[in-house]
Design goal:
five-stranded mixed β-sheet; single chain; Spore Coat Polysaccharide Biosynthesis Protein SpsA, Chain A; 2 domains
Amino acid sequence: MNVTALIVTFNRLNKLKDTVMATRRLPFQHIVIVNNASCDGTKEWLETIDDSRVSILHKNNNNGGAGGFHYGSEFISKSILTDWVIFYDDDAYPCEDFLVCFERMNPNINDIYCSVVKNKEGEVCRMNLPWKLKPASFFENIKYLRDPSTFTAKPGLSSEVISFSFVGAVIPAKLLSETYTFIKEELFLYYDDVYYSSYLNLMGYKINFRIELEFIHDVKASTNWDNQEWKIYYLSRNLFLSKYLYHNFEYFSSYAKVFRLIKYFLIGSTCKNKRRYYSYLVKGIFHGIKKISGYNH
């Protein structure tokens, strides 16, 4: 089984070092690292890696996780002969037995697989849980607010799902070569994996959530928006862009968009710099409706 790791990084050298170390311990045939124009010494450190399996792609500009995964997928599709490609960020890495477990599963070469993602404390990362159903109607969105687990995969149960996270997604290389153009760099970050995966599901590809496959994601249990207010711009803007980017396909219903925007508005009350947060929120909504995409913060 020939498996390639695809890692995207930007200005997180300390975490990247752990990710690369954990990755190199595993018997990957190829390791592709996309450096999104980091300016923290990442480029210089990457050039010191002495491993014939590693291909380093230095970009001249940062176009987010979406652009990095698109760029890396294109490179792999055109330059590397492999069977499978595993996606992850510079703050995540597969567990030591990941490839053994994956091969033992005898995976279907036409299917997509996604992993259980946990933080370093062993807690399941809810942000990386795939959807098994999506709330569409008003009452379904109320139900989702009360109990999100009704709509997401259960961490202890393998199941078929309708989306995946780019942390621990395993995609057949042939499928990726035919579909990587649907990883839309215009999104920059947030929802790029949800839109790509759900669009693949719409096209008829099967996505399997398997609890044997585990990833570690070096993130905190709770998110602090202070000094990261710019992120709300992409979360709010990208709610509106799937119809524009995916041939009238919209993952989020009108009710889902409204409920998420209300949630984002309420979150702003906890920020120290509320003016900055709400300005990005309003800008994101406006740009999403006006179909303005790409890097804008």
